[in-house]
Fold:
Amino acid sequence: MTDSPLLALYHSLNAHYGDLEWWPADSAFEIAVGAILTQNTDWRNVEKALGNLKSANVLSIEAILETSTDQLEMLVRPSGYFRMKADRLKHLCEFLELNSFDALKKMGRDQARGRLLSVKGVGPETADDIVLYALDIPSFVIDTYTRRLLERFGLYSSKLKYPVLQAAFHQQLPEDASLFKQYHALIVEHAKVSCRKKPLCESCVLKDTCPQII
DNA sequence: AGCCAGGACTGAG
DNA sequence: CTCAGTCATGGC
Structure:
């Protein structure tokens, strides 16, 4: 029984990079906040913003809701789009006030994901970040790195819609939150060390171990 | 000195 | 519904 292409790709990435321990955070709430802050933003800038929130003791639902918009904007500024993100964090916290992580987890994937998507500023990727890493429910995250990787390996066009690409992962992988977490982490890690422009790097670390794909 | 980052929303056609 | 425009700081 040979692996499906996406599972084979996972094994290759995993063999090279090993366990990556994602998502770095001290709580489910910090993960949700990070998911908003990292939208189209380098994680290193997100860390600065999270650090500001922690230093100001503003990393909780109540604290964010009580903090003035101006103050919140100042704190999240290093992560970019600071006005928009401050606003999105407010919306997220209003939502979490009524829907605890515990309650969301009990709803199951589709329900929880659907509720999250109703929050202004939470799109498909952010919702999946939260469902997967904060709720520990297997829902695969499709980001720009994922699209680029699939495109390069000739597996799926990066133009395909989010649900289509996600379905491919869901069909080809065992329904395992730990595996989904690690896979997404591996994709991002690989993106950081691989070149951005070439269709497929000659020095790609997967070249030797993923012959079925390359 | 540009280019780009772990997206999502909006308005136009 | 498809798609360009918009939002913004910091690293390399």
User: Anything to note?
Assistant: The two ends of chain A are 20 Å apart (CA to CA). The longest helix of chain A spans residues 82-98. Residues 40-42, 44-45, 48-49, 77-85 of chain A lie near DNA strand C (CB under 10 Å from a C1').
